Inverse folding.
């Protein structure tokens, strides 16, 4: 991490302060939304000095020291949107956080759709968010998926061998662990190594499996454990060190 008086690239500075990933910071600069010392920034590569230069995004000052970054795990309930705000007025994951955390402007790492639940990371650390969402560093994720009826053996073989979605997207093999059926439904633990949009729902759609519940229970070294639905906890200490190491970041 740079010392406070060492000049760094503007996009890195924005990422370190939780404004966006570096790629997202580039977009902010190119759209004319970032100024440095009163002048609109023309390049994400311009050097700024933390603690000295005045950087604004949409007129609001940037300057939260990197050491104050927070990373949290949320057990997202269903019917909650994974965004900071929703034009339709639905509850968002930010509504589940206390004001002091919301004031730090954490942003969700990836998404869980409206009807999915479970482990969701939010962070103000732009570098960490970028690594966690970049295909090169994609961490395996485990999902507990409950479907109606029994899961056919040929469906399991199709998913484990790497299927092609109806839209033509070729999927990597998915590890499947099937639980005993109960009360007319069956659960499987699916381990995904890709980040295809709504992958599990689309896989089950193509295999005529009706999803009753979809919950993310693990991401890389982190597990949801007994964290109650709708509650959150800090990821710090050994957990944070292990998570950062998993995506190639030093502690």
């Amino acid at each position: 991490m740079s010392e406070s008086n060492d000049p760094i690239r503007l996009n890195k500075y924005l990422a370190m302060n939780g404004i966006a990933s570096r790629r997202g910071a580039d977009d902010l600069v190119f759209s004319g939304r970032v100024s440095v010392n009163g002048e609109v920034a023309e390049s994400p590569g311009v050097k700024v000095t933390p603690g000295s230069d005045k950087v604004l995004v949409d007129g609001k000052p940037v300057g939260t020291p990197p050491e104050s970054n927070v990373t949290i795990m949320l057990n997202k309930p269903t019917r909650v949107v994974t965004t900071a705000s929703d034009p339709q007025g639905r509850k968002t994951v930010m509504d589940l956080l206390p004001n002091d955390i919301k004031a730090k402007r954490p942003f969700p790492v990836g998404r869980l759709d409206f009807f999915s639940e479970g482990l969701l990371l939010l962070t103000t650390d732009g570098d960490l968010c970028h690594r966690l969402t970049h295909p090169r560093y994609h961490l395996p994720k485990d999902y507990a998926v409950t479907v109606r009826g029994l899961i056919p053996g040929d469906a399991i073989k199709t998913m484990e061998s790497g299927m092609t979605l109806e839209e033509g997207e070729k999927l990597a093999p998915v590890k499947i662990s099937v639980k005993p059926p109960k009360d007319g439904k069956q659960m499987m633990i699916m381990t995904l190594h890709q980040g295809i949009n709504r992958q599990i729902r689309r896989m089950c759609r193509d295999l005529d499996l009706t999803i009753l519940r979809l919950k993310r229970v693990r991401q890389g070294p982190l597990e949801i454990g007994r964290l109650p639905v709708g509650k959150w906890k800090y990821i710090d200490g050994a957990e944070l060190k292990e998570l950062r190491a998993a995506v190639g970041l030093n502690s």
Notes: The domain at 8-67 is CATH 3.10.290.10 (Structural Genomics Hypothetical 15.5 Kd Protein In mrcA-pckA Intergenic Region; Chain A).
